Fold:
Amino acid sequence: MKGVIVNYRSGRHTQKMNQLVVEVEGVKKKEDAEKLMGKKVVWKTPSGNAINGQISKVHGKKGGVLVKFEKGLPGQALGTPVEVL
Structure:
């Protein structure tokens, strides 16, 4: 499955660089997103390296998911595709 990085997880005064909100292709409801819990996610850098993450929870009611990556992703990652395994 494919997905797109939408934004970092953030609060009023903080921004988590290793936790990102991802919209997965074909997922439009919260119930569908709950089925993806625990799946692996891979983001490829422009140089070809891979950064792995895992879906940790649902974000909102329209099917967004929260992904925790091993390390923080750069700002250039926003809007780029990820692979959900």
The radius of gyration is 12 Å.
